[in-house]
Amino acid sequence: EAGVVQSPRYKIIEKKQPVAFWCNPISGHNTLYWYLQNLGQGPELLIRYENEEAVDDSQLPKDRFSAERLKGVDSTLKIQPAELGDSAVYLCASSLGVASTDTQYFGPGTRLTVL
Amino acid sequence: AQTVTQSQPEMSVQEAETVTLSCTYDTSESDYYLFWYKQPPSRQMILVIRQEAYKQQNATENRFSVNFQKAAKSFSLKISDSQLGDAAMYFCAYRSFLNYGGATNKLIFGTGTLLAVQP
User: Fold this and answer.
1) Closest CA to B49 of B13, B15, B83, B86
2) Which runs of E-coded beta strand occur in A1-115?
3) CB distance A103–B43 less than 8 Å?
4) How many angstroms separate the CA atoms of A107 and B37, rounded?
5) Nearest 5 degrees, angle CA B53-CA A34-CA A94?
6) B94–chain A Cβ distance below 8 A for any pair
7) Which of B64, B73, B106, B114 pairs with B46 at a CA distance of 20 to 30 A?
8) Inter-chain CB proximity A108 and B106 less than 8 Å
9) How far is residue A2's CA from residue A5's CA, in Å, rounded to a whole number?
10) Minimal Cα–Cα distance from A93 to chain B, Å?
11) B47:A105 CB<8 A
12) How far apart are CA A100 and CA B97, in angstroms?
């Protein structure tokens, strides 16, 4: 069974440029998460989707970050414009649902470097 | 708000030896889940072990076991017979048992412990 797929794995951009990350969750997983992992830190939740609905986006900086999950499968996270402080790893995870027993499975992440 | 603390930024163990990674947490909830995740250099986070707070028995998965002390809010991971492939960053994480009002089922992570395995 394929795991969570993310692309690109690495991205280097100049500040003020836009950037987008793509995530394909495990087949059949209704819940999708985007996490931000700063260097030397644990991941922090940015946004959670239940199917195509964003049900928890309280930690998403909405002035420059946006996300979508059309058709409730793939998801895209966008930053526009990027700032130096956005350099980090962006992790996508998915789970069957939100039941207490549902395990979150993580993708390999996208490492973003903003110059 | 819940917090997770890992006070050991780095640990080292000899191959075939045993190592224990520490984790403490703070919560006012009585029911919750605790996890240990492993993140190898390739950066794909992998679930190592999980513990339900309502279970008194410590979880075990092959060479990995936990020491869960609910009253002390402590959740340590013991790796027995350490192997070179165990070298990675290990994260302790907390999740609420239910969607309490205003809460989510998000994972709350500690800052991680980087484990090196010496041959």
Assistant:
1) B86
2) 5-7, 10-13, 19-24, 31-37, 44-50, 53-56, 65-68, 75-79, 88-95, 105-106, 110-114
3) no
4) 13
5) 60
6) no
7) B73
8) no
9) 8
10) 9
11) yes
12) 6
pLDDT for B5-39, tens place per residue?
A: 999 999 999 999 999 999 999 999 888 999 999 99
**A4-8 contact pairs (CB < 8 A, 24+):** A4/A92, A4/A93, A4/A94, A4/A105, A4/A106, A4/A107, A5/A107, A6/A90, A6/A91, A6/A92, A6/A107, A6/A108, A6/A109, A6/A110, A7/A110, A8/A110
At A19-60, the pLDDT tens digits run 999 999 999 999 999 999 998 899 999 999 988 888 888 889
Residue owning tokens 């110059």: A115
Residue that the structure tokens 């997983």 belong to: A29
User: What are B31-60's pLDDT values in tens digits?
Assistant: 899 999 999 987 789 999 999 998 889 999
Q: Which residue has the tokens 């922090």?
A: A44
